[in-house]
Amino acid sequence: MIKQLFSSAVLCLGLTFSAAVWADDKLSKLLNSQVSVAGQMTEPKFSALLKQGFKSVIVNRPDQETGNAAPVNTLREIAERSHVSVIYQPVISGKISQTDIEEFAKYYNELPKPVLLICRSGSRSTALFQQAQHQGLLHE
């Protein structure tokens, strides 16, 4: 029982820390000096993010996913006004394949930096980045 309580406390502390990291920068989370990730996107949020100097965007959220307020065509129109490249690489949450990872790495390696990754919560884009990095597929 004490072990379960300790595990629960550690989990809560971890979730609190994660929320604090996101709260410090409400728009995006820095993964390294060349890549950041952002969750739920809106047109005003995307416009504000582009003002931070991103040169490329990879959108991993499928347009048809429930709750998607800003489809890729809308984001692309906004980005074009700022001369920012947008790649649409939809990945189904919880179903990242090796092909997805390799395709992500190809885009990441070819795009101008810094890059903004977008999905619903930031988790699937972060997972793609970390898997590609772990496999040595990213040229950094």
From TrEMBL:
Residues 1-23 form the signal peptide. Residues 30-133 form the Beta-lactamase hydrolase-like protein phosphatase-like domain. One of its GO terms (molecular function) is hydrolase activity. InterPro entries: BLH_phosphatase-like (IPR005939), Prot-tyrosine_phosphatase-like (IPR029021). Keywords: Signal. The keyword Signal applies. This is Beta-lactamase hydrolase-like protein phosphatase-like domain-containing protein. Gene3D superfamilies: Protein tyrosine phosphatase superfamily. The lineage of its organism: Bacteria, Pseudomonadati, Pseudomonadota, Gammaproteobacteria, Moraxellales. It holds the Pfam family BLH_phosphatase. The keyword Signal applies.
